[in-house]
Amino acid sequence: VKSSSVFCRPSFLQWVAGLIFFIFPGVSYSLRACYRPLHVYFGLGLFILAIGTSLLGITEKLLFSIGSTYSKFAAEGVLANVLGLVLIGFGLTVVYVVTRSEWKRVTSPEEEALSMHFKTLTERDSPDSPQGS
């Protein structure tokens, strides 16, 4: 039985997790920090799969449209091969940039303070609140 539900696809799950962890202000910084490596790993996996799918589609198009004249360097074949090389170069560049630690964004103290859990902020007395309340 093949599942064709949109809700079972990894890209949808990646999107939902990103929405929950990075948009809702109630999610704590520690949860976001724990999820970040998984987000990068699965995001890179999906990106590599998308590039692979594109390359397979280009190859399939070439095999069906100019299969017999491919070895004669037809213009369509050369263009498709150049596009394939550009896709591979783009993919390698993105994977390189994402995996390098010196390219990662440094979290500012303001972001850490803003991402604190809302419940933690409401249970404590804030420094700006009057002492009697």
Rg from Cα: 24 Å
Low-confidence stretches: none
Mean pLDDT: 77
Structural class: mainly alpha
Report helical residue fraction: 55-70%
β-strand percent reads under 5%
Task: Give a nutshell description of this structure.
InterPro entries: CYB561/CYBRD1-like (IPR043205), Cyt_b561/ferric_Rdtase_TM (IPR006593). The protein has 133 residues and is mainly alpha-helical. It contains five helices and no strands.
Describe the structure using short key phrases.
single chain, 133 residues, mainly alpha, 5 helices, elongated, iron, metal-binding, CYB561/CYBRD1-like, transmembrane helix
Structure description:
The chain has 133 residues and is mostly helical. The chain has a domain at 33-102. Helix content is 66%, strand content 0%. The protein is built from five helices and no strands. The chain has helices at 10-22, 29-66, 75-99, 109-114, 118-123. It starts with 9 loop residues before the first helix and ends in a 10-residue tail after the last helix.
Strands, helices and their partners?
Layout: H1 10-22, H2 29-66, H3 75-99, H4 109-114, H5 118-123
Helix pairs in contact: 1-2, 2-3
Pfam family, one: Cytochrom_B561
Membrane topology: Multi-pass membrane protein
Organism: Scyliorhinus torazame
